[in-house]
What does this fold into?
Amino acid sequence: LYTVKIEDLAFDADFTLRCRRDDYVHAFVSYFSVDFSKSHKRIGFSTSPEAPYTHWKQTVFYIRDYLTVNAGEEVKGTFSVRPNPRNRRDMDFDISVKFDGQYSKLDESLTYHMR
It folds into this structure.
């Protein structure tokens, strides 16, 4: 928070998700972890599904059709975030996904708007 700049609010991040088990993928989930290191007592928390509960939640990005995945297969893509040009408090997300599995294939870009 001490060093963030306006241009830091727009970013792209490549990702690779290795499937842990044979299953179905219906959505991607995003969460954040934060550490307040400059306060008098260092404190932080995470909204990860594996972390203790907080009132903050995860964000779910549903895909158009589910994927059938096998353990060890990888879903790859790029996650892009931009402030909305009409309202700076809104965020626009683009998720490009590539998957070439035994039972499913996917190569598409999805757009989401958080208001």
